[in-house]
Amino acid sequence: MTLSIRPATVADIPALCAWNAAMARETEGLELDPAVLERGVHGVFERPQRGLYLVAERDGAAVGGLLVTYEWSDWRNGDYWWIQSVYVLPEARRDGVFRALYAEVARRAREARAASLRLYVEAENRRAQRTYAGLGMRPSHYAMYEQVL
């Protein structure tokens, strides 16, 4: 079976929304507001400077995707590329889909001269942490704080 990675299009919005909702449910037990989620996904296509969605296809069927967003670093004079909204269909997991998505993000980031690749991971999600470490990522020395507005 052939696996390919491509930029998402507006035709992928229903799948991207479904994947985001499933990921929030699986990882945090959250039920996202579908209307807010759809506007949020549309927002990336409306303003490409916000980010880029990539979709993984196996034999022409979409099996997963992710979002890359950008954060400017004056210290590094470049963008940090944040990998977000990662989702792979359950039946396609542990089959190289995320690895292929990550490789494409890394290729694009190098080409764009990004400062680094970053992502958030749940503190207790050891399986994901092992996956990221296996790709060469390392834990950051930063802790994250947040105030929801």
From TrEMBL:
Residues 3-149 form the N-acetyltransferase domain. PROSITE patterns: GNAT (PS51186). Gene3D superfamilies: 3.40.630.30. Keywords: Acyltransferase, Transferase. CDD domains: NAT_SF. It comes from the Bacteria. The keyword Acyltransferase applies. Pfam families: Acetyltransf_1 (PF00583). PANTHER family: AMINOALKYLPHOSPHONATE N-ACETYLTRANSFERASE-RELATED-RELATED (PTHR43877). This is N-acetyltransferase family protein. It comes from Rhodanobacter lycopersici.
